[in-house]
Amino acid sequence: MPTIDKPKILVVNDDANSLFALTSLLAQWAEQEHYEVMAARSGEEGLRQVLLHDFAVILLDVNMPGMDGFETAEAIHQRARSANIPIIFVTAFLADEIDRLKAYQRGAVDFLFTPVIPQILHAKVSVFVALASKNELLRGQAHKLSQRSTELIATNKRLTREIEERKAAEQQNSAKDEFLAMLGHELRNPLSAISSAAAVIGLPGVSAEGAARARSIILRQSRHLGHIVDDLLDLSRAMSGKIRLNRQPLDLATLTASCVDTFRATGRLSQYTLELDAAPGWIDGDATRIEQIVSNLLDNALKYTAPGGRIGVGLRADAGELVLTVHDSGVGMAAELLPHVFDVFVQGANTLDRAQGGLGVGLALVRRLAELHGGGVGAHSEGAGRGSTFTVRLPAAQQPAAAPPPVAARAAAPGLPRILLIEDNDDGREVMAMMLACHGYPVRHAADGLLGLKAAADFLPELALVDIGLPGVDGYEVARRLRADPRTRAIKLIALTGYGLAEDKRRVLDAGFDLHLVKPVDIDQLLETIQRCARADATQ
């Protein structure tokens, strides 16, 4: 049982003999009744005691000089903390009805008349002491209940939060499982097409037209696989903060129009009506990443819009920002999906044939890239079957001063350079060597770094394509040794690697390479890069 402070009794009387008599009587029962007795010689002193202590009952003399008992009682009950203290008036004469009414109006609960009868004093005081003890016990219990209630509320909040976190984790795990299943589907589709097309080329009765179509399928599906891998890598880099922006002034309207033109040139918009309304506007951004934003929004619109649908792309200025919108007339979104459409591993239900493919991570990448540029994203839909609108807001920048026109480069018509290919993957090396040879380039190839160094010294090519992950000595060391040898110092070096981070490019250039290409390399891109290197040599 908790320890409770002893109830206190205050005796207020200006007469010393009366004060002593009352306190002495009360003191003889103090230990038995478990209370404490205190005394005051005036109303003012009594008030001071009330300010310092809580009392179970106050025995207050009526007739005191200065502040009498009625005034003292009124002052005690005007204070909120002492308003409920019971007061027993002590008087030496029989109070008439007017005095009794006055006393009760001042908060009196009873009267004692002197000479005080000890048994009556004991009985009356015992009641109030017991009541004070019970009240103190109840206050203690109420305090404990309040503490317990606070603890239970905190526990309930914690459990509720844990339940919500568990549900969120379960939903995320479910979304990841669905994503992995979708990833397997998206990877198997192009791989199946590539495998089938390769088998068709090898059939004895295949026509030249059939072989050409099969090769076209292999190229197209290989690009699609590359896009899937790029999306995954870019999202991973963006979420871990490893993307470094190469900022420069960009005309967002021109860049947006260029992306739309690319989609048109590849035939992806041939079955859609696309309207472009882009007002001129400049931002400070990374051109490659902004192109990803626009392309991913267009990809998303195509994915969820049936052929024959409409897509609108708009660009306008608003309060210091450029607002890019992509609207489609596609399947739309349910209200519960809207707050999560830019989350990782979230994808809306798709009722279409999914001919466009994709992993559903494009919008998450759009949001992260917009945030890296200091902007934000939004999505709106009126509901299922009523289309969707996606919005990207980017900080506007001042249009840069016009640059002087570039000096025209001297025209050159270089011959085809000799090329050395150093690649440890046998199939990749053989196919690339065949492609280069088919385009007329003299090609020598090697399967590791040491053989590549020897071939470079014997063949003395103008250009070398070097894989980074080589056995023996890696591509970095190959580049360093070629640069250190006077005979091979002038060879143009192009790194071929599956590593595409900014620090990978920096490491490649630090090792002595001239250019950095990320696998898989599109043959058109590779040929254009080789020709650019040849033209650069011819103009020197």
Automatic annotation (TrEMBL):
Q: Which residues form the Response regulatory domain?
A: 8-129, 418-534
Q: Which residues form the Histidine kinase domain?
A: 182-398
**Which reaction(s) are listed as its catalytic activity?**
ATP + protein L-histidine = ADP + protein N-phospho-L-histidine
* EC nos: 2.7.13.3
What is the annotated signal peptide range for this record? none
Keyword set, alphabetical order: Phosphoprotein
Q: Name one Pfam family in it.
A: HisKA
* PTM-bearing positions, type 4-aspartylphosphate: D61, D467
Report the domain of life of the source organism.
Bacteria
Q: Which PANTHER family match?
A: HYBRID SIGNAL TRANSDUCTION HISTIDINE KINASE C (PTHR43547:SF2), TWO-COMPONENT HISTIDINE KINASE (PTHR43547)
| Entry protein name | histidine kinase
Question: What does the organism's lineage look like at the top?
Answer: Bacteria, Pseudomonadati, Pseudomonadota, Betaproteobacteria, Burkholderiales
